[in-house]
Amino acid sequence: MTQVFNFSAGPAMMPKAVLEQAQQELLNWQDQHTSVMEVSHRGKLFMEMITQAEQDFRQLYAIPDNYKILFLQGGARGQFAAIPMNLLNKKGKALYLNGGHWSATAAKEARLFGDIDEIDILEQDETLQVKALDLRDIATQYDYVHYCPNETISGVEIFDIPDVGDTPLVADMSSNILSREIDINKFGLIYAGAQKNLGPAGITIVIVREDLIGNARPATPSIWNYAVQSKSDSMINTPPTFAWYLCSLVFKHLLALGGVKAVEQRNIAKADLLYQYLDQSGFYRNKVAKANRSLMNVTFTTDNDELNAKFVAEATACGLQALKGHKVLGGMRASIYNAMPIEGVEALIAFMRKFEAENRG
């Protein structure tokens, strides 16, 4: 196989067109005969770039005017702490919906800042399936309800938005942001590390409703205080300028493809192709209920650890990179984020057929 396809869960592959443009502009950005990494983040050209980036992102995700967009640092883990520092301020309690590793990790961090209740929303029989998420009766006692719509490790995605009434809903969309259309108005806050669908590692996007800003606890460090960051254009310190620039190129690239609606159709086609093959195969198995299969992270196994290891090694040699499953779960995982072309999925299936034919007992 001459072409390499990167199935890494993150940092993940980026659009080739974006990388090529960045390569062309690396030594001469905006005719400045220097790179974007070397100009002032408060200079006219950089400020124009980030202003346009926000406008493009708003257009892509149909973000209403009463939401602020912050470009921060610290990754999703940083937001695990920032969210309770900013939002756990009136009732002193928050509810975390545990759908897997990352939602549980977020709840653990939040307990450092207040009273956190946790509900397990997964049914784990023969397959992983998400329970009904009508939480209106209990949500009123909390400052916010938090969940992770896409768990990268298990390959579980929650397509139905939890019903929490008027309580702010907080979502960690690090692994599925911009992958499909959503109604932003149903959320109080959305956050995402960039390194899967937005750009490179090093920058984190927070979409937060304006009425939730300005109530941070007094001890909140300024770098985590949404009000401070909002007033400072996300730049109370020097931001990750190159990562911000690359995100701006990704936004323009997605708009050129037709926006999130078109991207969603591509993602559905890729995922359907791979899941259809898995379902007809008696050799591989996916352990997630069909209603909750992730469009972004497809997990599968042969149910044999030695065969799984052999699969990963031979796939890597064939140019299919980073298919080893997370250490928590094992098996294999194909992360097929926005930048993964359908040709990558087709190449993976072709290898899977060959491997099955050669290793079926």
| Strand adjacency order, main sheet | 2-12-11-10-7-3-4
**CATH homologous superfamily caption of the largest domain:** Type I PLP-dependent aspartate aminotransferase-like (Major domain)
Provide the succession of SSEs.
EHHEHEHEEEHEEEEEEHHHEHEEH
Largest sheet: 7 strands, mixed
Percent strand? 15-25%
Radius of gyration: 21 Å
Question: Which runs of at least 5 residues are low in confidence (pLDDT < 50)?
Answer: none
Can you tell me the CATH class of the largest domain? Alpha Beta
Structural class category? alpha/beta
Helix content: 25-40%
Number of helices: 10
Tally of strands: 15
Q: Return the average pLDDT rounded to an integer.
A: 95
* Terminal residue distance: 26 Å
The name of the CATH topology of the largest domain is Aspartate Aminotransferase, domain 2
Q: How many distinct domains?
A: 2
- Characterize the overall form: globular
CATH architecture of the largest domain: 3-Layer(aba) Sandwich
Main location: cytoplasm
Enzyme class: transferase
Family: Belongs to the class-V pyridoxal-phosphate-dependent aminotransferase family. SerC subfamily.
GO molecular function: O-phospho-L-serine:2-oxoglutarate aminotransferase activity; pyridoxal phosphate binding
